[in-house]
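JOB MANIFEST
job_type = single_chain_structure
chain_count = 1
residues = 278
[input]
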Amino acid sequence: MRLDYPNNLTWDSIVSSCLSACISNNYKILLKRAKRKIVYRDCDLESLKVLKCSNIRELIIAELVNDLEDCFNEVVVYHACRTDDVDSYYKKGVVPLSLVQAQDKLRAVFSDVASESDFIKAIEKIKTTYREGYVYASLDPRHIQANCGHYLIYGSEYLGCLSTNLPRSILKEPRDRLKETGKAAFIKCIVSIHILSDLECLASAMIADHCYRIAHEREDVHPIRYCIATKSCIPSDCVIGHIFPAKIWDPYKQRCWDDVNLKYDYTISRWDFKPEMA
């Protein structure tokens, strides 16, 4: 089976079976009766206290982790990028960051305003520890859209850092030029569930969100902050789709970026922002 976190239909039944076995078949009724006590969507302790089983929390989470490992062999992850060739991911897969390629892109984007001396100075200023050789992805694209939108708006952090170290005399905000190239995209991939390093954290988030939705009769799944880093390439045959996000929250500008019209949408505040796909 394949786990896709934003789609609760892929995992709700697993959580429900676990809670029924560990607590009671009536746990849903108990949650609905005490919905006023369940306020937060990211804290399983609230629900477990209502169910009078917070004392066996570790046991419940351990059982759910076992169930996840037994039921799922694949998990869907989303790689955030800014690309001018989305088709390349279907041919080459998602490959680890190459510092040389990022430096070449810097030169290509700013060749008309910066000199080779400017590029060399910018490159020398940036530390490369933990940058090269990794692929980063998330279980939930909505979290990236709302909290880490710079990957989608400007591209890799390394490229963004290089651009900010170009002389301000050539451009007032050099990094802004990166928004003019390519398109924000999530590359949707499947990987082995064993690549997830903290299943206990995932199980806790699942319990919290599942119980909240039961108590308040909601269907939407709350975004989760869960990212992975791997030194392995995600092969092209594991790339199953892509998504173009329409609206992205820019953490640098603290504004909503409209990637369809390539401008900021000043009508949307931080609290009103909701991830949308093009």
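[summary]
The chain is about 35% helix and 20% strand.
Strands lie at 2-3, 74-83, 135-138, 183-192, 227-230, 239-243, 245-250, 255-258, 263-265, 276-277.
exit_status = 0
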